[in-house]
Write a structure and sequence with these properties.
By secondary structure, this protein is of the alpha/beta class. It is built from 21 helices and 18 strands. It binds cobalamin.
Length: 512
Amino acid sequence: MRILLINTNRKVDFLAAPPLGICYVAGAAEEAGHEVKVLDLCFAGAKIRRILRSTIASFDPQVVGLSVRNIDNVNMLHPVEYLHEIEEIRELVGRSSTAPVVVGGSGAGLMPERVFTRLQADYIVVSDGEVSFVRLLSAIERGESPKGIPGVGLTVDGRFHLTPPELYDFRGKTPDLGRWVDTRPYQQIGSSYNIQTKRGCRQQCIYCTYNQSLEGSTLRLRSPLEVVDEIEEALDKYRPETFEFVDSVFNDPLEHSIEILEEIIRRPWRANFTAMGVHPRNLDDAYLDLMWRAGFRSFMVTPESASEKMLRSYRKGFTARHVVKAAEAINKTAFATWWFFMIGGPGEDNETLQESLDFALRYLQKNGGPATHVAHYFVGVRLYPGTRLWDMALKQGFIDEQCDPLKNLWYVSEDLDLDRAVEQMTRAASICPEIYLGFDERILVFSKAAAIFFKMFGFPKPYWKYFTPVNRFGLWSGLRFMYRPPNISGMIRDSLRRQGYQGRLIQQPAVW
Ligand code: B12
């Protein structure tokens, strides 16, 4: 059959994400004998309708797959929803083709029934796509019911029916991203060539979905040789400027990541690497040295808090001491690192918030060391069904059973004095240019122009590391807080009120 796979993600900024998942699925479908085309709409801009219409007219697909990556941007202080854009794409597909529409991707897996219904899909695939999608295709081809295929959802007798996904071995699969997708526009804006070394996440963080419908909690490791062969081949064929490891946590299990780093070092070529989701527990001098020798110059660290109480509350599996030790070790190097903190989980109060801010002031602020940092503080924890935090939020009245999880739903600790919290964060950000607050994400709209400038003047990547000098200039010139939302605590309260929360945080008097 002719299969058209469409990347619906159109978020273009320094964090633009090449659609790796769709390439795994495309490869599997082709191997099963189908004729496959990938249409990446990320950089389609205003030409999207024309591109969609002409691709469908010329390829005449028998099945259309839509990849849904993001539902929203998980940012309470600068909320953006993406589903309506995807709905438009779905509608455009429906106008040009009668082929059945299959929805897949991480966004689809988070809340399958809601996404399935909202996008008026014929089928949905949850978790790993390769095996389930191929089985679904052969059922469609033979005119059989796909009911019962693991990971496939559909309407049966007027009701949504999903067979729980099975998680398959993740070896021997090479997605060949550069074959299916033109990665050059991604590189131009500062993004990378994606590589996945494993699936599954064995962390137990109370708010997270990775270990559930997305990847499951059982680790499925690729062999280091296979991973590095993939990198070598991509380097040879597509010459990307940077590779990015997109595992949920790159350095867990530690030994697996060490083997990959050592294998890269053994090869005769050199390349640049970065990674998101680096666990602070294992970041000592020896590991950082290995990363550096392998070609890493930057990475993201995700402690979520520097307070012992909060790390325990989030069940992060490491301590505040690990976070400090990681920062101390990094500060001896020249890495650029981006740290993420999530303010407002269960038990967060103004003291624990201050501990996380003091951590940035003490360890992440440029104080002579070679490393450069960005420290990002988000307020509010996004609620997803199936997580431990979802149940806590239900019990504590943040949400009720009727809430639509496709809408931004948040948990914010009732122990926080919101006005004081906003004051604490802005005070810290006004003396520490490394600190970014949720609403600063608005600056990402300048990514395109900034990327052209950085490229023209040969600024080294990653481009996000220039957030800090931009802030420094903002503080010096007085621009830094000129355009901040006028009533941040009011925004948080409004958002909670919209989801039906009636509790203490709303009743606090606003001081703005
Ligand atoms: C790595 C990562 C990042 C990196 C990306 C780096 C890069 N160069 O790509 C960084 C840190 C930059 C990032 C940024 C963001 N991220 Co992110 N990210 C992830 C993460 C951990 C892995 C994504 C990945 O590449 N997986 C590997 C590929 C191979 O897997 P996959 O895409 O899921 O594909 C498989 C299946 O889904 C399926 N499949 C995929 N497409 C299709 C299509 C069809 C038809 C079928 C049948 C199957 C199918 O088959 C594939 C193979 O098995 C996920 C969480 C997770 N564990 O999934 C979050 C996640 C995708 N991110 C998320 C978000 C919100 C964001 C941001 C919006 C955050 C922000 N405020 O900026 C941005 C958006 C960036 C963008 N331009 O889209 C959310 C999305 C959920 C939501 N609420 O919308 C997730 C799920 C995390 C979470 N639970 O909060 N992210």
